[in-house]
Write a structure and sequence with these properties.
Elements lengths: L3 H4 L5 H33 L1 H15 L8 H15 L5 H34 L7 H30 L3 H22 L6 H30 L10 H32 L5 H11 L4 H18 L3 H28 L1 H9 L1 H33 L3 H62 L1
Helix pairs in contact: 2-3, 2-7, 2-11, 3-6, 4-5, 4-6, 4-9, 4-11, 5-6, 6-8, 7-8, 9-15, 10-14, 11-12, 11-14, 12-14, 12-15, 13-14, 14-15
Length: about 450
């Protein structure tokens, strides 16, 4: 990797298309592999130990929330500076962000390590025979967290530099250790600790590789690297609002399940969550595209607003023409598809809910573009404030619709929130484009 890496056009059509396809493979490939290997792991570990493994996977998957938004701030900041060709001192911003994320990882690591016995004995209900295995597994996970956080920070840097091919290559050993190596381990040992050990080794190995390439990129800017706490302020300002958004969104995304269980019954929750969780997989498409377009938007918004505007509308068209046909087919054959998947009795209770959810999934797929664009402009507070304003409205609508329309009402309330979300984020995205164009004309 040389200086030429960063001298290329980071928002060229060919590069963005290639990186979008790579990003889709990065996000969709592991899910496809898991489809075949998870049944083997369930058989080898048994339901209870596999359940604990899924909790460990969930913590690994959610580890990005522990960086308090600094990772996303790093992508936005570096892409913006590269677009403006203002690279002076950028290496120190990167080093400060990476070091901060690593330190946060150490704090979380200590907390998880010390809390492992409580998690295994009090927080989750497991058989006494598996308690020691669970404690050991969670402590192994704790050791991994700082390396996970380093991975996230370097991935954010690579995304800003549009190095998605490299990200894809470096993720191969992680995917292998997540979904393939455990299957081989189970031929020799049914120990959960043995399986988790493979996950840990894979993450540590990938971390060393990410650090190697991350260091090479940083050295392109300058060989003099310093960690400066003063540079944390702009990163934390952006990141703090991202953290607020993540917390509120996590609550909003899951609270409907608990309200359904409280107002109707826990017995019927599955009729709502099964189609919702399954159809949410469609988001893989716009999310893969946005992982590439987010740094492109950040790069162009401040240096070439017309280019940023064109990228925005082209992205909207791409998502529309890919997702719309999928949603139309699923809408028309919702009942038949559910019957084939989960049986006629389940489909009878769930197909109307599925149709309502499909409408929301289509809108939300487009909205993933809107809120990524808003974030790319540096306006992270807009997303947080929208989520905070929507929260009480959504709670009230959930209560009203469930009370008068039952389980279908929960889906209607969800669709109402998604529609409101889309209208607000679309308004702000277009507003920011208009304001920036007016500024450039002055």
């Amino acid at each position: 990797m040389t200086g030429a890496t960063l001298e290329k056009n980071l928002t060229s059509k060919k590069l963005l298309i290639n990186n979008s396809l790579i990003s889709l493979l990065i996000q969709g490939g592991p899910a496809l592999l898991a489809f075949f290997t998870i049944p083997l792991m369930i058989t080898g570990l048994g339901n209870e130990k596999f359940g604990i493994l899924t909790l460990i996977w969930a913590i690994i998957g959610a580890s990005s929330i522990f960086d308090f938004g600094i990772g996303q701030a790093l992508t936005q900041f570096v892409a913006k500076k590269l677009g403006l060709k203002e690279t002076e001192d950028i290496q120190n911003y990167i080093a400060t962000a990476v070091a901060s994320i690593f330190m946060l990882g150490l704090v979380v690591s200590v907390i998880v390590f010390l809390a492992a016995p409580f998690i295994a004995k009090k927080f989750i209900h497991i058989s006494p025979a598996f308690v020691n295995d669970s404690i050991g597994s969670f402590r192994l996970l704790a050791i991994t967290i700082p390396f996970l956080m380093l991975n996230i920070s370097i991935i954010r840097l690579l995304e800003a530099c549009q190095e998605f091919k490299l990200i894809g290559l470096l993720k191969i050993p992680v995917v292998f250790c997540n979904y393939v190596a455990p299957v081989f381990i189970l031929f020799f040992s049914k120990s959960l600790i043995a399986v988790v050990s493979v996950l840990v080794l894979g993450r540590i190995a990938s971390c060393l590789a990410y650090l190697w390439f991350g260091r090479k990129i940083i050295l392109i800017f300058s060989k003099e690297i310093k960690i400066k706490t003063a540079y944390l302020k702009p990163l934390l300002t952006f990141g703090s609002w991202v953290t607020v958004s993540n917390i509120v969104n996590t609550i909003v995304v899951n609270i409907d399940r608990f309200i359904i269980a409280g107002l109707i019954s826990a017995e019927v929750v599955a009729f709502y969550t099964t189609p919702l969780d399954a159809l949410s997989r469609i988001y893989t498409i716009p999310m893969a595209l946005m992982s590439v377009m987010f740094p492109a938007f950040s790069s162009e918004f401040f240096s070439n607003i017309e280019r940023a505007r064109n990228l925005y509308f082209k992205s909207m068209k791409i998502i529309f023409f890919i997702v719309a046909p999928i949603c139309i087919i699923l809408f028309l054959f919702a009942k038949q598809g559910l019957t084939m998947w989960v049986g006629s009795a389940f489909a009878e209770s769930s197909h109307v809910i599925a149709k309502i959810i499909i409408l929301g999934v289509f809108l939300q797929s487009l909205n993933i573009l809107n809120y990524n664009f808003v974030l790319a402009t540096g306006k992270s507070e807009v997303q947080a404030k929208i989520y905070l304003a929507e929260f009480p409205v959504y709670l009230a609508s959930l209560w009203f619709f469930i009370k008068y329309f039952g389980l279908v009402g929960a889906a209607l309330a969800w669709l109402f929130r998604i529609t409101l979300d889309f209208l607000l984020f679309n308004f702000f995205a277009l507003r920011l484009i208009k304001l920036r164009r007016n500024d450039e004309k002055k």
